[in-house]
Write a structure and sequence with these properties.
With 522 residues, the chain is of the alpha/beta class. It contains 16 helices and 20 strands. Strand 4, helix 11 and strand 5 form a beta-alpha-beta unit.
Length: 522
């Protein structure tokens, strides 16, 4: 098939105003981790049902007309989910069976039987008017804790996606050999053979498939170097890697990078955005790694990535609770509502983003400990079209929040949870974009005795209200505060301002409480 550039199919769409010939034309990016197909219950997949290729088609179809570019993650970035000469899949899975006693997962079995997930994905994207990107996890840690099998281990069939013979036989290349902690199990990129392994897979993708672009997912995981590796060496290694990928892609295919939305975390990974853009990076996808957040450094990242299109990532959740059992995906989540998503996108556009990306959006669905139990719901696909229109977003109701997310290495500690000390004011800062009208702010705490609290907003005392209800409809009730855990205050519209706004909460008596969540609706 001759290359067909997706920009041609979008010529009449209200997308970005091209500042240069190479400015990416996409407004909304959609990440598809593939494994959601067999871990989520959906309209096209019943609980426990193995992979069928029609399921992959359905993941493309359900966002047709809603997103511009579809990013497929073909596995965990270690073992190809396509016919490969870099890793012979028959030999690989024979070794997996011998070492771990595991059969291939159903997606890998599809490829072993002669299928091609990548080509099937590209063909479906072409049919549905979406640009076809491959997103490759650069240093993923999933399931690697089982690399050296021990009695009682239960690695599951996903071990075949995660561990190769080369990885198992070279523990000296890991960040901390012998450790079972996720960030320690990934590979040390200061070892030249490590990026070489990844480049072989990328070359195969670039040579064999008519993709519109490639994303390097640097957030899987937040670990590439040992602590003693100097910053300049880290930057040189990562910039050189991106340069080589650019050469493999050629000048006309798009190169994207998924990077932290926090400045201090960039240095930990060795990501110098100015140098990466100069090396040929077209698109910067700024992310909090898993959560939708409204606390980020996007304005500064905009300046650092000048010349590239900048995207901000939204996720299915704004806050995660404690594990309910051992294993993957066994957390309760507070789900992002349409108002959370739209307000977060509005802020991102106001701070310089050219577009929005969506990560793990399918995981609104029942999965993990909830698979088949109907405890979640369908993703709010009807809210995606609004993400394409920054002006319309600015006119919609706004729901701002401060929640707890996973802390990126090198990033500042999250604003919550925070324990209150009697008589000591605690500030919670919001970055508001074009706030309108009056507002109501709420705090949620870990206790039910909240009678001795006072609040100020931007330095002025605000009036408490008994209305602690959710400001907007919430289709996903997990982790909502009980009325006795919540307190709220009314904020006059004259106190709201563009940019930094500060809520100051003081506990004046009673047993100290911990603030776990803050939100503001206007």
């Amino acid at each position: 098939m001759k290359r067909r550039y997706f920009i041609q199919t979008l010529a009449a769409a209200p997308l970005l105003a091209a500042e240069t010939q190479r400015k990416a034309p996409f407004r909304t990016l959609y990440s598809n981790d593939l494994t959601n197909i067999t871990s989520c219950v959906s309209p096209f997949r019943a609980a426990k049902e193995p992979f069928r290729p029609e399921m992959l088609d359905a993941t493309v179809d359900e966002v047709a007309g809603l997103v511009d570019a579809h990013f497929l993650q073909p596995g965990l970035g270690m073992v190809p989910l396509w016919p490969s000469k870099v890793i012979d899949l028959k030999e690989h899975f024979a070794w997996i069976k011998q070492r771990y006693g595991q059969k291939p997962d159903s997606m890998s079995q599809f490829v072993l039987n002669g299928g091609d997930i990548v080509q099937r994905f590209i063909d479906r994207c072409r049919a549905k008017g979406q640009a076809a990107f491959i997103s490759l996890r650069v240093n993923d840690a999933h399931h690697k804790e089982f690399v050296d099998p021990k009695p009682g281990d239960k690695p599951g069939s996903s071990i075949g996606m995660s561990v190769t013979r080369w990885y198992a036989e070279h523990p000296e290349h890991r960040i901390v050999p012998g450790s079972l902690r996720g960030a320690d199990l990934v590979l040390n990129w200061a070892e030249p053979k490590v990026p070489e392994q990844k480049l072989m897979l990328i070359r195969e993708l670039c040579d064999n498939y008519d993709i519109d672009g490639l994303e390097l997912d640097f957030l899987r995981f937040y670990s590439y170097f040992r602590a003693e590796t100097p910053l300049e060496q880290r930057r040189a290694i990562m910039t050189n890697f991106v340069k080589k990928v650019r050469q493999m892609l050629g000048p006309k295919r798009w190169l994207c990078a998924r990077v932290p939305c926090y400045l201090t975390a960039l240095d930990v990974l060795g990501l110098d955005l100015k140098a990466l853009v100069a090396a040929g990076l077209d698109m910067v996808n700024a992310s909090a790694h898993y959560f939708t957040t409204q606390q980020h450094d996007l304005a500064a990242i905009r300046k650092m990535s000048d010349g590239a299109a900048l995207y901000f990532e939204l996720c299915h959740t704004i806050w995660k609770g404690d594990k309910v059992q051992e294993g993957y995906d066994v957390f309760p989540y507070r789900r992002a509502t349409k108002e959370h998503l739209h307000t977060s996108a509005h802020l991102a556009y106001s701070r310089g983003a050219d577009g929005i990306s969506l990560f793990n959006f399918a995981y609104y669905r029942s999965h993990g400990q909830g698979e088949g139990r109907g405890v979640f719901g369908e993703p709010p696909f009807d809210g995606l079209k609004a993400l394409n229109d920054p002006k319309a977003l600015a006119q919609q109701p706004q729901h701002w929040f401060i929640a707890f997310g996973w802390r990126a290495p090198g990033a500042k500690p999250p604003a919550v949870p925070r324990k209150l000390v009697i008589g000591k004011p605690e500030k919670f800062n919001f970055d508001l974009a074009s706030p309108r009208g009056e507002a109501r702010v709420r705090i949620q705490t870990d206790r039910t005795s909240l009678t001795h609290l006072a609040a100020r907003f931007n330095g002025e005392a605000i009036t408490p209200t008994d209305d602690v209800s959710e400001p907007f409809e919430v289709p996903y009730p997990s982790m909502l505060g009980k009325p006795e855990e919540l307190r709220a205050w009314h904020i006059p519209g004259r106190l709201l301002r563009e940019g930094k706004n500060s809520l100051e909460v003081t506990q004046t008596g009673g047993e100290p409480v911990t603030v776990v969540f803050v939100d503001l609706a206007c």
